[in-house]
Design a protein that fits this description.
There is one protein chain. The protein is α/β, with parallel strands linked by helices. The chain has two domains: 252 residues, Aldolase class I (TIM Barrel, Alpha-Beta Barrel), CATH 3.20.20.70; 56 residues, no CATH class. The chain contains 15 helices and 15 strands. The strands form three sheets. A nine-stranded mixed sheet has the order 7-8-6-5-4-3-2-1-9, with helices on both faces. Helix 1 packs across helix 10, helix 2 packs parallel to helix 3 and helix 6 runs parallel beside helix 8. The model has no long low-confidence stretch (mean pLDDT 94). The chain binds iron/sulfur cluster.
């Protein structure tokens, strides 16, 4: 079925000065010439899609990475101008740029605002720099402080920060200090993630060699509950398991991934979701630049998302949100009444006060959010 809802755009900027020990994103250190070549390739890729999406409206643009604040403001200016002149962005578009405190300056901030950036997302993770150093993230508390001060001094309206749970050696007080510091600095949106130990990363090797001990799941759950308590008592709304926002500051872009909206991914290793297909761009920089310079598509994989997969994703993603799963829509889309097909599981979880049905939506109760994975598994 044709989807006429506004689309989102994600642009991947794959540059970092040094790889963090836990990172499995496509990111690397590159010189200025390579960055310039990448920018040209990106502009060609945008040109490639200009006509395909001529009749579509976009209402979110997310420039992520890597470290987008590592490229020059001119890079961001050229990129955004190319996007604005090629795709139809609504006046109210949410335009986010991810920044790393180590490469963020007042000058860059002013330039970003001039480029139309209206939301900044900063990778804080923790205000304890010693803790971050342990997992190979070289970040100074002074830089974080400076970045957040810039936001408050300029009364910049929309700001977001990431917080990481599960860093080896992290205490509950340390997590609390980080979150309270962000609240004090009036961050409008806070994302709370757990440290994922991916294979083929230096952190994984350290865990295997028993040089560092991973945090237990039970401890991580108790940290998550503490963070949620602190944020919600300060007036933040948990609109998704990992995402908290001041009312009205929920991320437009994030919601596209949860409500199956279509989005276009630009850049190396970027993904798109269009017409029921998921597309993945090449992960190789030389190939990306070569294909784009010939005005050829850098898509390397195209996969149709079957109804069975969509059903699974719908349950998994909607139940992570505060609103929950729209049961009528689910029935219409998948010809399945979940209240009947999962009657026993739902009855048991209702009895345990883990799940509830409110105005036609099935949702996890606030007290059970921290065990949502187990609840969702029961319903798949
Ligand atoms: S800053 Fe982010 S993208 Fe860059 S290496 Fe660290 S985790 Fe990876």
């Amino acid at each position: 079925m044709e989807d006429n809802r506004p689309m989102g755009v994600y642009v991947h900027i794959p540059f970092c000065t040094k790889k963090c020990d836990y990172c499995d994103f496509v990111s690397f250190s590159m010189d200025d010439t390579a960055k310039q070549q990448y920018l040209e390739a990106l502009c060609n890729e945008i040109e490639f899609y200009k006509y395909k999406f001529a009749d579509r409206v976009f209402d979110s643009l997310y420039i992520g990475g890597g470290t987008p604040s590592l490229v020059t403001p001119e890079f961001i200016k050229t990129l955004t101008q190319k996007l604005y002149s090629s795709l139809h962005f609504a006046d109210y578009t949410e335009i986010t740029l991810e920044v790393n405190p180590a490469s963020f300056t007042r000058q860059k901030f002013l330039e970003y605002v001039r480029c139309g950036i209206n939301r900044i997302s900063v990778g804080v993770q923790s205000i304890d720099e010693k803790l971050l150093n342990k997992i190979g993230r070289k970040q100074k508390f002074e830089d974080v402080k400076y970045t957040l001060q810039l936001f408050t001094q300029s009364k910049f309206l929309n700001t977001s920060a990431d917080v990481m749970l599960g860093i080896p050696g992290q205490s509950k007080e340390s997590v609390k200090d980080t979150v309270e510091f962000l609240i004090k600095n009036d961050l409008k949106h806070i994302s709370v993630y757990t440290l994922q130990v991916e294979k083929h990363t230096p952190l994984y090797d350290k865990f295997r060699a028993k040089k560092i001990k991973p945090m237990s799941d039970a401890r991580m759950v108790s940290y998550y509950n503490e963070v949620a308590k602190v944020l919600m008592s300060a007036g933040y709304v948990r609109y998704e398991l990992s995402n908290f926002a001041r009312p009205g500051f929920e991320s437009v872009h994030n919601q596209k991934y949860w409500d199956e909206s279509e989005y276009l991914g630009l850049g190396i290793a970027a993904h798109s979701y269009i017409d029921g297909y998921r597309y993945s761009n090449t992960r190789r920089m030389d190939r990306y630049i070569d294909l784009c310079s010939k005005m050829q598509s850098p898509v390397e994989q195209k996969e149709y998302i079957s109804d069975k997969e969509r059903r699974t994703e719908r349950i998994m993603l909607s139940l992570r949100t505060q609103d929950g799963l729209d049961l009528q829509k689910f029935k219409a889309d998948f010809k399945e009444d979940l209240l009947l097909t999962r009657a026993n599981e739902i009855a048991t979880m209702q009895k345990n006060n883990q799940i509830e049905v409110v105005n036609g939506f099935l949702r996890i109760t606030p007290n059970s959010f921290s065990v949502s994975n187990a609840i969702i598994t029961e319903l798949l």
